[in-house]
Design brief:
The complex is a heterodimer. Chain A is of the alpha+beta class. Chain A has five helices and four strands. A four-stranded antiparallel sheet of chain A has the order 1-2-4-3, covered by helices on one side. In chain A, α3 packs across α5. By secondary structure, chain B is α+β, with helices and mostly antiparallel strands. Chain B has three domains: about 80 residues, no CATH class; about 35 residues; about 140 residues, Alpha-Beta Plaits (2-Layer Sandwich), CATH 3.30.70.270. In chain B, α2 packs parallel to α3 and α6 packs antiparallel against α7. The interface between A and B is medium-sized, with 22 and 20 residues.
């Protein structure tokens, strides 16, 4: 069934920030980003429940990861280049500091951490991982680079007491 | 509080972790969870101290377990970075280990510089800065088995070097060789390789270059020779070019380029006037 869409994302929708914000420039406070994300999460959860909210955030992160790979990473020459460019883009955009713990392309397994994560670093400890958006984002980045599907799970998070979010990515096909 | 609970709390407060909590203690359930948590932290910390970075602490959260896991993650990343450096990636830098980061980064920078120096020593001709014979041989083999065909080859030989050496000394001869090298460097493109493969012999490889483009490069070399300025002896080069069109034909092209260069050299000898006197 075709669903009428009003908000289908395209990279162009990010707009011309230089033109639109000659005085305020390209940056906003992290709190503003979190205010929006946490309120959107709250509203979706109130409407659709916890599990659906996680699915939606994973899917949104996945879409963002695909777009980021296509529009921000440029030409990739290999795995080393992929991680180097990704580290650089994530740092430049203030998304987080990416570090690699394990990198096994042949067996389709990666363990990476993101510290100073835009989504969660400094949040109160809740006892559960909350970076479902990042899970989707990383899955899409790996999928875009390798052409293979990856399942990504956050195993440590600022919200569970860690100082860096740790993600395990495993090839699922 | 019952005596059993008090004794166990006292033991924990003194830094020890009991082996077990007796079931009859009033807070046996809570004490056992605390004991298990501390025991897991101890095991994980001990493993870290012994350099074992494979242990997991997944069921425990909180700031203490979290910090230990972050330390483990950082050490695992450091291990990964070290492997990358061992594989030749000297762009790796550490930014999360305080003074160690600075020491590590300095070590990597020095390794990078030493490696660059070593590579240059092994691949460059010290007089001209051009690639040397060993590098040329390796590159020649790589091109012969590569996908950059057609590949053109230019052979160049310095005319009159022996006479300059005999008449004005080897220092002047070296100046002539360097001038010839500079001319060749200027005449070629970014992806071309110029090597000095003998005392007065040079070779240029031109990947993805057919006969017509190779002739353009030859003309450019001749123009550079004609337009040379500066002081010191004047450069005269005999040159010859040939083109290899498919894998395995490079040696044949090299031989043809060499023959054409010698033909050019004999023309030079036939027409040569005595060497121009050096400026005083």
């Amino acid at each position: 069934m075709d669903v009428e869409r009003k908000y289908r994302f395209t990279w162009e929708q990010l707009g011309d920030v230089d033109l639109g914000r000659p005085n305020l420039g390209p940056y906003a406070k992290v709190e503003v980003y979190r205010l929006m994300q946490l309120c959107v999460r709250d509203a979706i959860e109130s409407e659709y429940g916890m599990a659906a909210t996680d699915r939606i955030f994973y899917r949104a992160g996945y879409l963002a990861g695909e777009e980021l790979y296509r529009n921000a990473l440029g030409h990739i020459t290999g795995l080393k280049d992929f991680f180097k460019k990704l580290q650089s883009v994530l740092r430049e955009m203030g998304i987080g500091i990416l570090r690699i713990e394990e990198s096994d392309l042949d067996n389709g397994r990666f363990v990476i951490t993101v510290s100073e994560d835009l989504d969660c670093s400094g949040l109160p400890e809740t006892g559960y991982e909350i970076c479902t958006y990042d899970e989707g984002l990383i899955a899409a980045l790996l999928n875009s680079f390798t052409g293979k599907k990856f399942d990504v799970k956050e195993v440590d998070c600022w919200c569970t007491g860690s100082k860096a979010c740790r993600f395990v990515a495993e090839m699922s096909e | 509080m019952d005596n059993c609970t008090r004794l166990i709390l006292e033991e924990m407060a003194s830094g020890r972790i009991p082996e077990a909590v007796e079931a009859h203690c009033e807070y046996a359930g809570e004490l056992e969870r605390l004991r298990a948590y501390l025991a897991a932290l101890r095991q994980f910390t001990l493993a870290l101290c012994q350099g074992d970075l494979s242990q997991k602490l997944e069921t425990y959260g909180g700031p203490v377990a979290g910090s230990l896991k972050t330390l483990q993650a950082n050490l695992r990343h450091l291990t990964w970075q070290t492997k990358q450096i061992a594989a030749g990636d000297f762009s790796q830098r550490v930014d999360f280990m305080g003074d160690f980061s600075e020491a590590f980064n300095t070590m990597v920078e020095k390794l990078d510089a030493a490696m660059t120096n070593l590579v240059n020593l092994n691949t460059r001709d010290t007089l001209t800065g051009l690639y040397n014979r060993a590098y040329f041989d390796a590159e020649f083999g790589r091109l012969d088995h590569g996908r950059d065909f057609p590949v053109s080859i230019v052979m160049a030989d310095l005319n009159g070097l022996k006479q300059v050496n005999d008449r004005h000394g080897h220092a002047t001869g070296d100046v002539l060789i360097k001038k010839a090298a500079d001319i060749l460097k200027v005449a070629v493109r970014g992806g071309d390789m110029v090597a000095r493969i003998g005392g007065d012999e040079f070779v240029i490889t031109l990947p993805r270059t057919g006969v017509d483009s190779a002739n353009v490069i030859l003309s450019r070399i001749r123009a550079c020779i004609a337009e040379q300025g500066g002081t010191g002896p004047e450069v005269s080069l005999a040159v010859g070019a040939a083109t290899a069109h498919y894998s395995g034909s490079m040696q044949q092209a090299l031989t043809e380029a060499d023959q054409r260069m010698y033909h050019d050299k004999s023309e030079y000898k036939r027409q040569a006037a005595p060497l121009s006197p050096l400026p005083t």
